[in-house]
Amino acid sequence: MATGNHGEALLEARKSKLKPPPMFKVILLNDDFTPMEFVVDVLQTFFSMNREQATQIMLKVHIDGAGVCGVYPSDVATTKVEQVVTFARQHQHPLQCVMEET
């Protein structure tokens, strides 16, 4: 709208400069006690991976000591970590799941 001499106000559209939320990697840590098959099941159940993807991540965890399961906003990452740790404890496995900012 244009301003005139008749008291009209100039309205401008302001673009908000919102940054995307910080993202967090959800990481499984290797241990010597949790069965590989259980880790594959966790990856399929909580991270919606197919068997092949889950097996690849499980092997990365086994060989490298850690593997990234996914990258999520803080609240989603926190929920995934809690779900995995709770599920592991219910099945008496010491599997560790952590998150770190990307």
What would a concise description of this structure say?
42% of the residues lie in helices and 21% in strands. The chain is built from three helices and three strands; from the N terminus they run βααβαβ.
Fold blueprint:
Elements lengths: L22 E7 L6 H12 L3 H14 L1 E8 H17 L5 E6 L1
Antiparallel strand pairs: 1-2, 1-3
Helix pairs in contact: 1-2
Essential attributes:
102 residues; alpha+beta; 3-stranded antiparallel β-sheet; 3 helices; 42% helix
Characterization of the model:
The mean pLDDT is 92. 42% of the residues lie in helices and 21% in strands.
Count of extended strands:
3
Report helical residue fraction: 40-55%
Find the structural class using helix and strand composition: alpha+beta
* Count, helices: 3
> Mean pLDDT, nearest integer?
92
Please write the string of helix (H) and strand (E) elements.
Answer: EHHEHE
Radius of gyration: 23 Å
**Largest sheet at a glance?**
3 strands, antiparallel
% residues in beta strands: 15-25%
